[in-house]
Amino acid sequence: MHNSTAPEFVISASNLTKKYGDFVAVDGISFDVPPGEAFGLLGPNGAGKSTTMKMIGGVSQRTGGDLTIMGLDPEQHGPEVRAHLGVVPQQDNLDEELKVRDNLLVYGRYFGLPMSYLQPKADELLEFAQLSDKGKARVDALSGGMKRRLTIARSLINDPKILLLDEPTTGLDPQARHILWDRLFRLKEAGVTLILTTHYMDEAEQLCDRLIVVDKGRIMAEGSPAALIREHSTREVLELRFGSDRNATVGAELEGIGERLETLPDRVLIYAHDGEAALEQITARGLRPITSLVRRSSLEDVFLRLTGRSLVD
Amino acid sequence: MTQVLASNMSIEPSRRFLGSLYSGNVRAVFSRGVKATWGTNWAIMVSGFVEPVLYLIAMGIGLGSLVGEIAGPGGEPIAYAAYIAPALLAVSAMNGAVYDSTWNVFFKLNFAKLYEGMLYTSLGPLDVALGEILLALLRGAMYATGFTAVMGVMGLITSPWALLMIPASVVIAFGFASFGMAITSYMKTFQQMDWINFVMLPMFLFSATFYPLSVYPEPIQWFIQALPLWHGVELLRQLNVGVFGPDTLLHIVYFLVMILLGLVLTTFRLRKLFLK
Amino acid sequence: MTDHHAPSGAKIVDRHPVLGLRSPLTPAESAAKARKFGSIYYAEHWLRKLKGYGWTVVMTSVGTPLVYLFAMGVGLATLVDANSNASLDGGSAGPVSYLVFVAPALLATAAIMVASEENTYSVMDGFKWHRTYYGPNASPLSSAQLVNGHVVGVSVRLLMTTGIYFLFLLLFGAVQEGTGWIMIFSAALAGLAFGLPLMAYAASIVEDKGQFAMVQRFVVMPLFLFSGTFFPLDAMPLAVRWIGWISPLWHSTELGRIVSYGYSEPGVLTVVHVLYLLLLCAVGLYFARRNYVRRLGK
């Protein structure tokens, strides 16, 4: 950044708090996002992710703490802050009474952009979203994945440097998710700052340079996906199923194998640096699990470790 | 007889008339509807009774003061309120039946997907259709009873024949409901549904509801006499004062034919929509 | 405000290999424009939407006057005009025909019908079903600008409706005075006076439990019937006359009658009509903005 007044961070939150009556949705969280980073908020439903996003998006007033976006306080400079952003909300809110392309044009007008820019830009974005042949279609004729891509295209109409994505792929089929991830990855490569919430660990691992794990409005951990896994989990995990009756009672017989043991209703997880070795130890003790699986540790395990609960329940 | 029994016991397709469309279980659909109505929107249901009463008070008293008396079915002059009251009853029977068989059915058909759920059970489309219509008729009968009572209180009833307006308005409602349902089965979008209003409003205003047909030139009179609402209005008007003519029978036959045609068309359409 | 995006100086790059066309405006410029013209931008969106169901709009604005004028102004009029006891005050010009009497009321009614259509389900749709308000709400526009834009859009549709209706009134010979055209605006004002409070109410509804059907039956319908629409308000007993006094329809109709055929009433009353309609608009706008800001800023 040449500009001397340019802030070091595009987003800076300190002790950010939001209460609805007695309920504390966001409980004093602090984080900074440098330009160009893909920053994730990972947590289960109701963790306070969407509320945080709304405060960053300048549409929800905070109850306490400080927040700046591009050095601006969204409460004093709402329109200025929102002009910097592209927003992909959790639920699509496209105007179904307008045609696909008209949705982009109309949205661009909210940023005061002239039609001479918006017309070619809309075509370009339709291509980017792989919707070129749908420009004249009615929005309600689009599939869920197409609507999502159109929403992302719409969020890019003002050529924003910061993109807020709230659960961008929730409810999409695997193929549609991969198309979306590809598009988001390209934006990231082009230097757009991505802020995304998700409760999918694979999404967080794929897209995020750094993330915070949020639960009940608080930050449980912060770091890159790899660092978080290194810090809070072992390299590998051995997943065992002994049948729903035995899972709970088999714990004592597994004593001493691996670093740590988690008993879930449907399976038992053994955290170990070498999963295969752990499995050998188990068979050596004469235990016969119905199924066994060795895999790499994931953010799901980090979350389980930190909160004692799974991400998706 | 034995053959019927046997076929009912087996899982072979029924050979009864309309076997695949009708399972003889209208009651299940009907009682679901009664529960849903009582449970959630009874206030709206009760309020539907208020509308024709408001019309009667406003037009009967307010407009009546401008119009004075007017010739009734037998040629005897009657108060303007007594002239429009049976017409308003016919209109309310039409509106209720049309609403229940169009908007209501349209919504359930296209949005709530209620019928799809019902048709996964042993119910046939005709059970569903008849159940909905029956519900509309029950509601119509209640409104008609209430409205007739209001007419009595306002001193607009002079003949015991007037009590027959209640069953007659149920027949009118049946005619509109069975036809309305068939038409709704063709509708795809809300915009198309708007067209129903474009038909209903002129029919309401032009069918000799507020003034006699004689104000129109003859060709327009013929046209209006071809529309169902006019027959309903005239039928109730005659019942209200107990003056009948050969045309009374014509009005009744008109509605019987309408009911029959509507049901045949509805059945045909439901077969097409649900049993592809 | 400085722009933090482009390298300092001019915008050198017009097209980026991945991001494509670059915006000709900096965020600061965008925000400044939105602050100034945001309401217009939303009105633009609103009217584009209206074009989508243009057919319905045309049919209602042409069909409704035709149907009502034939039924009430021609059909019903033959009964009323034939009754010598009925005398409708036409000021210095003496009694007027029923058609002329009822015309201003029909015009204002049409405006109220349009206003109630545009301020019920479509408002709730923006918050609840399609959530279309939340799109622009994330843009530089403010919640209050959404309200303004909606009101501008509704006003345009109202004036279209009352304008076309007025032409039909002329065609039917239902207007006597040269000042009759003022009705286009007094009727549209009635639409807003009724529509704005309704909009505020619609914005406050969280669950659809048939509230709008109730509004239709217990508010719109009584106003339509008891506001001196089809007969002078004095024809009703005092017990229900108050409905007319609080009804925007009655106030607008009285104004219409003054400009359309010289209906005579004390000048003070005329001022009251105008002020009352404006007051309803102001109160409605205030609460609509409050409710929109609250709900969109959750």
- Strand proportion of chain B, as a percent range, falls in under 5%
Question: How confident overall, as mean pLDDT of chain B?
Answer: 82
Question: Major sheet of chain A, described briefly?
Answer: 6 strands, mixed
The N- to C-terminal Cα distance of chain B equals 31 Å
Label the structural class of chain B.
mainly alpha
Strand order of the largest sheet of chain A: 5-6-7-3-8-9
Tally the beta strands of chain A.
13
Computed structural class of chain A: alpha/beta
Mean pLDDT reading of chain A: 89
Count the strands of chain B?
A: 2
List SSEs of chain A in N-to-C order: EEEHEHEHHHEHEHEEHEEEHEH
**C-alpha termini separation of chain A:** 43 Å
The helical percent of chain A reads: 25-40%
Main sheet of chain B? 2 strands, antiparallel
Helix share, percent of chain B: over 70%
Helix run count of chain A: 10
Work out the strand percent of chain A: 25-35%
Overview of the structural elements:
The complex is a heterotrimer of chains A (313), B (276) and C (298). Chain A is an alpha/beta fold and 313 residues long. Chain A contains ten helices and 13 strands. In chain A, the strands form three sheets. Chain A has a six-stranded mixed β-sheet, sandwiched between helices. A four-stranded antiparallel β-sheet of chain A has the order 11-12-10-13, covered by helices on one side. In chain A, helix 6 (174-189) links the parallel strand 6 and strand 7 (193-198). The longest helix of chain A has 16 residues, at 174-189. The two termini of chain A are 43 Å apart. In chain B, strand 1 (69-71) and strand 2 form a beta hairpin. The longest helix of chain B has 29 residues, at 125-153. With 298 residues, chain C is mostly helical. Chain C has eleven helices and two strands, in the order ββααααααααααα. Chain C has helices at residues 27-52, 54-82, 98-118, 121-129, 134-137, 143-171, 182-204, 211-226, 238-246, 248-261, 267-296, and strands at residues 15-16, 20-21. In chain C, helix 2 (54-82) runs antiparallel to helix 3 (98-118) and helix 10 (248-261) crosses helix 11. The longest helix of chain C has 30 residues, at 267-296. The two termini of chain C are 28 Å apart. Classes of the chains: A alpha/beta (313), B mainly alpha (276), C mainly alpha (298). Chains A and C meet through helix 2, helix 3, helix 4 and helix 6 of A and strand 2, helix 1 and helix 5 of C.
